[in-house]
Design brief:
Layout: H1 2-18, H2 56-63, H3 67-83, H4 85-94, H5 100-103, H6 105-116, H7 122-129, H8 133-140, H9 149-156, H10 160-167, H11 174-190, H12 195-205
Length: 206
C-alpha cells in the first residue's frame, strides 16, 4: 500500500509539471463592506431571503416591476456579491449548513436578467466572472458547468465581441472561459444561420 501511494504521489507530481493552470486575480479587500445596498424596489429583498426554489408568484411580481429600476437593482446585486464577498464568507463559516436562502441572490439576479434579455447588464455579470477562482466557486458552484450559459445566451447573442474580449483577458479562471465558450457554441447550435460567425469566433480565440 505504501509503495502504491508513493507511486501515486510521484505520478501527481509529474502531472503538475505539465498541467496548465491560470493564476486568477485576488479579490479586492479595500472595497469590502458589510452594509446592504439600498434598492429601488423593496421586492428585491426576496432574492436575499429565498433559495433556488423561490415561489413562482414572487418571481412573477419581480419580473413585472418597472424594467429600468429592476435592471438597476439586479446590477446592484451583482456588485453586492463582490463588495460583501468576505462578509458572506464569514456568514457561511459560522453556519453548520449552507444557508441557501441567503446565498442564492447572485444566481437569481443572473437568471432574471436573462429572462429580461437585459444585455446592458452583461458587463456586470462578466465582472463577477473576472474574480478569483474561490469567489466564483463560492457564488456559482456547479452552475459554472451546469446551466449558467442559458441566461448568458439571451444577454450576449448580439455581443460576441464582448465575450471574445473576456475570454482573451489574462488571469480569467478556466471554467469561466469555458462557460462563455459554451454560451457561444449554443448560439451556433440554436441559430444555424450564425454558424459561420461562431466558427470565426472560436478561430479567433485559439
Amino acid at each position: 500500500m505504501k509503495a502504491y501511494l508513493k507511486a501515486g504521489l510521484k505520478r501527481m507530481e509529474e502531472e503538475n509539471k505539465t498541467r496548465i493552470s491560470v493564476k486568477t486575480v485576488k479579490h479586492n479587500k479595500v472595497i469590502q463592506r458589510e452594509t446592504k445596498p439600498d434598492f429601488i424596489n423593496r421586492e428585491i429583498d426576496w432574492l436575499y431571503e429565498n433559495g433556488l426554489r423561490i415561489e413562482k408568484e414572487k418571481l412573477e411580481i419581480i419580473l413585472n416591476l418597472p424594467r429600468n429600476s429592476l435592471v438597476s437593482d439586479l446590477k446592484l446585486i451583482l456588485k453586492d456579491s463582490v463588495f460583501r464577498y468576505e462578509y458572506f464568507k464569514r456568514l457561511t463559516e459560522k453556519s453548520k449548513n449552507w444557508p441557501e436562502n441567503r446565498m442564492s441572490f447572485p444566481i437569481h439576479a443572473i437568471y432574471i436578467l436573462g429572462e429580461l434579455k437585459a444585455s446592458e447588464a452583461l458587463v456586470d455579470i462578466l465582472e463577477t466572472l473576472r474574480q478569483e477562482e474561490d469567489f466564483i466557486e463560492f457564488w456559482y458552484g456547479d452552475f459554472m458547468t451546469n446551466g449558467l450559459w442559458e441566461p448568458l445566451y439571451y444577454l450576449s447573442e448580439n455581443n460576441l465581441e464582448t465575450l471574445k474580449d473576456f475570454v482573451l483577458t489574462p488571469n480569467i479562471w478556466t471554467y469561466a472561459r469555458s462557460e462563455i465558450s459554451c454560451c457561444v457554441g449554443q448560439i451556433g447550435l440554436h441559430q444555424p444561420k450564425r454558424k459561420g460567425e461562431v466558427i470565426k469566433w472560436f478561430r479567433d480565440i485559439f
